[in-house]
Specification:
This protein has 7 helices and 5 strands, in the order ααβαβαβααββα. With 221 residues, the chain is of the alpha/beta class. The protein has a 3-stranded parallel β-sheet, with helices on both faces. This is Alkyl transferase.
């Protein structure tokens, strides 16, 4: 979900550019609505990467406050649409109020079955894969797994997100994956668009779905 700061600077001026993150949070709520309306069953949103901790402390603080503020809105929408919220986190340095708010979302929506919203917060794919490898190594050490029986599925089962996304969309003109779901994206269709995340419209969203529908997925065959 790229382009929040650029959107904020364009709309509010450089001094208030961080307000773009609030606009980005609201846009996520809209996109979830569109997904539910169109029958999309699961979405994973890259909200904050492990690399983002290197940003200016003022911006990190703004982002953390935005997360807490959006949790209430997501909770209301989740109750209305029976949305299950899951959190992907590989480096939990989150402030206590953020961690508590996210965990409450997970706990309160655990039984919902209408739609799944995965929020990647303080997440890095390389670390996710490393943790999966550690878990497999522990099973081998404890005699629960024969090394000769290790397969791709063995690793997949130990990932925080075992499912492979059908479509990845990156906004704002960036053309890279940026340590997001590296294992899971092996055969995912990729689309990169120039619009900033808060500028995304329903027309853009529908166009993305049509683009995906017109792709011929061969899975290496």
């Amino acid at each position: 979900m790229d382009g929040n700061r650029r959107y904020g600077e364009r709309q509010f001026g450089r001094a208030r550019r961080l307000e773009g993150h609030q606009a980005g949070g609201k846009k996520l709520g809209e996109v979830v609505e569109w997904c539910v309306d169109c029958g999309v069953r699961e979405v994973t949103c890259f909200a904050f990467s492990t690399e983002n901790w290197r940003r200016d402390p003022a911006e990190i603080d703004c982002l953390m406050k935005t997360f807490v503020g959006r949790c209430d809105a997501i909770k209301k929408k989740a109750q209305e649409k029976r949305i299950r919220v899951r959190v992907l986190c590989t480096d939990n340095r989150l402030p206590e109020d953020v961690d508590t708010a996210l965990q409450a979302l997970v706990d309160e929506t655990r039984t919902y079955d209408g739609f799944v919203l995965n929020l990647a917060v303080s997440y890095g794919s390389r670390m996710e894969i490393a943790e999966a490898a550690k878990a497999v190594a522990t099973d081998v050490k404890n005699g629960l797994l024969d090394p000769n029986d290790i397969t791709e599925d063995t690793i997949t089962k130990h990932l925080q997100l075992p499912d492979a996304p059908d479509l990845l969309v990156r906004t704002s003109g960036e053309r890279r994956i940026s340590n997001f779901l590296l294992w899971q994206l092996a055969y995912t269709e990729l689309v990169f668009i120039d619009k900033l995340w808060p500028d995304l419209s329903r027309r853009d969203f529908d166009s993305l779905l049509r683009t995906f529908a017109n792709r011929h997925r061969r899975f290496g065959m």
